Amino acid sequence: MEHISSASNNLIKHIIRLEKKRERFAQKQIVVEGIREIIKLSKSGIQPIAMVLNEHWQGEELQNFTDQVAAQRVVTASDDVFRKICYREGVANAVAICPMPSTSLEHLQVPGNPLIIILEALEKPGNIGAIFRSADAAGADAVILANPLTDAFNPNIIRASLGTLFSVPFAEADNESVHAWLRKHSFQIISTYLEANQSPYGENLDRPTAIVMGTEATGISDFWINHSDALVKIPMHGEADSMNVSTSAAVMLYEAVRQRLDS
User: Fold this and answer.
1) Closest Cα to residue 121, out of 142, 143, 150?
2) HEC states along 13-34?
3) In whole angstroms, how large is the CA radius of gyration of the chain?
4) From residue 181, how far is each of 109, 142, 143, 223 by CA, in Å?
């Protein structure tokens, strides 16, 4: 197996450049760090173009990993080099370059009674990643980033999602395109809104449903206020006037799951 001990190696320099959004989109490639994340990527059908492994990684765990991930090129790197290509500290032994998946709405396929979540103009990668984890756990059929302000392949989103960015189908589009797509596929649109007078518990979520979430600071825009079938507010009984958007998304998703299990 090829070993890299210099940061001037072309592959290493390429990985470092891909930390920048502009370069990711120019090359149509992304960097994925971590064993769990890369395995989820591979299971989604995306084959890594190249993979760099920690030179000290040996034994059965390494063999199990390489058996699951068929990268086109696999190399090892020295400690100094490996640290340079890791976006975060403590990454678990592997860094991969992969083709950038399509985020087109036209490529998004949904089943017969779909449940999806729409995130309008969310900016914090940690929140977006956490919502992907909730969507994955709840068995949601897709996540759509509407009017996105953050690159979906930001390394912090991938990290916060624990790789579920690759296990939950997702797309990105402007509000108008998302709305047209929802109507084309006969979704009801349920939006969370701080000024709403009704809770989600009275809505029938056991039908094709799109849940729209906005930012903690401003909530959903007028567009979704005016284009929703229902506006709901999660009941809160304490002093706080809002919840973290990732927590709210989990509440909404699992209310839909509860209704579907009870039906």
Assistant:
1) 150
2) HHHHHCCCHHHHHHHCEEEEEC
3) 20
4) 11, 13, 13, 15
Q: What is the dihedral of CA 123, 203, 110, 172, to 10 degrees?
A: -20
Residue 175's contacts (CB-CB under 8 Å, 6 or more residues apart) are 120, 146, 147, 221, 223, 224
Query: Exposed e or buried b for every residue in 221-237, given b needs 16+ CB within 10 A?
Result: bebbbebbebbbbbeee
Task: Check: pTM over 0.85? Answer yes or no.
Answer: yes
Strand partners, 146: 120, 173
Residue from 106, 80, 85 nearest 32 by CA: 85
The span from the CA of 94 to the CA of 110, in Å, is 32
Residue 133: its H or E element: helix 125-138
Type and span of the H or E element at 159? helix 155-160
Q: Position 262: which residue type?
A: D
Cα 247 to Cα 245: distance, rounded to the nearest angstrom: 5
Q: Averaged in consecutive runs of 10 residues, what is the pLDDT profile of the chain (263 residues)? A: 95 96 96 94 95 92 92 94 84 89 94 96 96 98 97 93 96 98 97 95 97 92 98 90 90 97 83
> 142: Cβ–Cβ under 8 A, 6 or more apart, which residues?
108, 110, 114, 116, 117, 168, 169, 170, 171
- Calculate the CA dihedral of residues 199, 202, 206, 208 and round it to 10 degrees: -60
Please name the amino acid found at residue 218: T
Amino acid code (one letter) for 130: A
